[in-house]
DNA sequence: TGAAACGGATGAATCGATTCATTATCGTGC
DNA sequence: GCACGATAATGAATCGATTCATCCGTTTCA
């Protein structure tokens, strides 16, 4: 089988093959690739022709092995299918592109094991840093990672330690905003569809919920019905509502869902059960994703600066990298904003 | 600074460091990592202790350089923020997990250049195969990739050549379904918000649109108003509607949007212009994404088997890999299904 | 004419993990 | 006491790109 018509390559051509074909040394080929101006025109052309003829493609492994490091950072979010996180990721990418870094993006699906697996994978591949929305309660793994020379920035959660930076939105305030709103509408019995307490966002929003209830003089024992779901998506929301409606006791007149995807599922289940919104059940979500305003019943939600969140996290990571020891760790916190719509307030 | 309290590693510990610390050879450390049963218990323990103490993490570059290949495949979709593609990607992951392959996932954002860049990146990293939803018209790059030994499967588009497999949904039929439906409701002037003709899905759906019009005895010159938008997302849809409403001539009474994200934007713009749906404008989308049924006006859409699409593409890729030369290339095509809702049919 | 300077090209050393032919050690059986 | 086999451990070679000290050939200038 000839070289040009072969159906499948026997082996990837290496820089040595190119050198042989062009009649130069491997060093020269490398120079053509990395410092073209140090090579004479004629030699460069010969090498380029050989590269073209052999369809040579650089071997990233060999490159990285020698270089020791790559212009890449990793990011792990809770759920890549959640529009909130895709918007955050877009912000990350935009900042990274400016410094010609690339991104390895993964979704932990809120599973600490998956998170750990991806972190290890990133580390083995030699990323310079990672942005993580932790799904586990403990930061030990991340601290160890940091000690091994990989910069860490927490994404969408406030750092509990002084020596790791974070970029977040004030989730306590966000949770409070939602419940203050419901209370101001006269609701005194509120369901809270929340995720596991291993996830910081869930903990913080809950704290805000409790604070708002306390401020209104309501006793959580009477005023709050908590439902914990396994995953923060539409299925979780449906499941939460089904369990709520099956339960004994006074049915709440309002509901706060820990995010919009959950709210979407909750709305679907509520409709299936013929529960009128907001008349029989007011609903508030969190994130203000793109479709929140366009639902059958437009969803009241807590808005967050998604793109900015991602952009800032990436910025912090890159600066931490470039400034080295002089870098000051910081906890950046944005403020959320309540957007009132028909799902909670008929007059909206 | 001592080893245990150092704030930042000077250098990643290598297998040699571990060997030194454990008082064994590098070969033995490698054996502990890869063939633990060929090592005596006491030696293995010593090595494991050293690994733990040094916080040793394998260097993926060196590993791959030696191995020559990795259990990884790449996938490039048009828009990772589109729920359609996240569901497809989930299908891919589920199939890959069964064979312990990992996935590198990227979004071309419908930009042929980005697509080419990611393909090259994947290739440099030594992926075994790629699944691509092409954004460029030409397949030359993919054919060349295939010739260099990287398996290729087209995702969500039917292969135009015999020697590349594909998994797709019949987009011609899907486009026809949408327009047949609108015609059956009595519409004789229909807007088609479509993407660039470099994207195969756009070409095919358009072909279906034209076929359905022809079958109904309608002349496209009168019956069809085509609007071409730059990107297949909500912004594109808004833009399309604005241009449609600004245009001279009879305003269409119905609209087919090339996908649901576009339809979402279109609905938003139509509402902003005070156009009643479906009374003044019937709307049909494509993909039947999760929120389509839950919009203010539930969206009529063309449903596709997303998860199955991704799963099957990955299956084809892995089988192609394992069966080698005996593998028969195939074009797998699923059938779409029209889901009628209120945005087109008030009685639905 | 000879020395210095300079642009180009060279090729051996290097990165870290894996592999495999070789060696070392020990126990078993005759 | 010796040979043999089995089990463990070794360490040199390898993968492919990069780097850098070195070398070569020209040109320039004293």
Describe this protein's structure.
- The structure is a homodimer of 348-residue chains.
- The first copy, chain A, has helices at 15-22, 26-34, 41-54, 60-67, 83-98, 112-124, 140-147, 171-184, 200-215, 220-223, 234-246, 260-272, 306-323; strands spanning 72-77, 102-107, 129-132, 151-155, 165-169, 190-194, 224-228, 254-257, 282-284, 301-303, 331-334, 337-339.
- In chain A, strand 8, helix 12 (260-272) and strand 9 (282-284) form a beta-alpha-beta unit.
- In chain A, helix 1 (15-22) packs across helix 2 (26-34) and helix 8 (171-184) runs parallel beside helix 9.
- The termini of chain A are far apart.
- With 348 residues, the first copy, chain A, is α/β, with parallel strands linked by helices.
- The radius of gyration of chain A is 26 Å and the shape is elongated.
- At the A-B interface, helix 4, helix 5, strand 2, helix 6 and helix 12 of A face helix 4, helix 5, strand 2, helix 6 and helix 12 of B.
- Chain A binds a DNA duplex (30 and 30 nucleotides) through helix 2 and helix 4.
């Amino acid at each position: 089988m000839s070289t040009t018509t072969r159906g499948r390559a026997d082996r990837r051509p290496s820089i040595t093959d190119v050198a042989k074909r062009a009649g130069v040394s491997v060093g020269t080929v490398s120079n053509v690739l990395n410092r073209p101006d140090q090579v004479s025109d004629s030699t460069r052309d010969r090498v380029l022709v050989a590269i073209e003829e052999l369809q040579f493609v650089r071997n990233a492994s060999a490159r990285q092995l020698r270089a020791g490091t790559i212009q890449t950072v990793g990011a792990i979010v809770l759920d890549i299918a959640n529009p909130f996180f895709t918007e955050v990721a877009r912000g990350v990418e935009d900042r990274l592109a400016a410094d010609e870094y690339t991104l390895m993006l993964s979704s932990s699906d809120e599973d600490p094991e998956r998170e750990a697996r991806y972190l290890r994978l990133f580390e083995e591949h030699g990323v310079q840093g990672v942005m993580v929305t932790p799904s586990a309660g403990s930061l030990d793994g991340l601290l160890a990672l940091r000690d091994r020379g990989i910069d860490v920035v927490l994404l969408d959660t406030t750092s509990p330690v002084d020596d790791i930076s974070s970029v977040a939105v004030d989730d306590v305030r966000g949770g409070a905003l939602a419940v203050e709103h419901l209370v101001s509408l006269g609701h005194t019995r509120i369901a809270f569809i929340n995720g596991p307490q291993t996830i910081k966002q869930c903990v913080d929003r809950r704290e805000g919920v409790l604070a708002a209830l306390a401020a209104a003089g309501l006793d959580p024992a009477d005023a709050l019905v908590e439902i914990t779901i396994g995953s923060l998506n539409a299925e979780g929301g449906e499941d939460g509502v089904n369990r709520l409606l099956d339960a004994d006791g006074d049915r709440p007149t309002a509901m706060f869902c820990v995010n919009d995807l959950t709210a979407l599922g909750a709305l679907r289940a509520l409709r299936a059960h013929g529960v009128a919104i907001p008349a029989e059940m007011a609903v508030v979500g969190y994130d203000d994703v793109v479709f929140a305003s366009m639902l059958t019943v437009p969803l009241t939600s807590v808005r967050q600066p998604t793109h900015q969140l991602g952009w800032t996290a990436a910025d912090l990571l890159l600066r931490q990298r470039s400034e080295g020891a002089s870098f000051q760790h910081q906890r950046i916190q944005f403020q959320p904003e309540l957007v009132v719509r028909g799902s909670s307030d008929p007059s909206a």
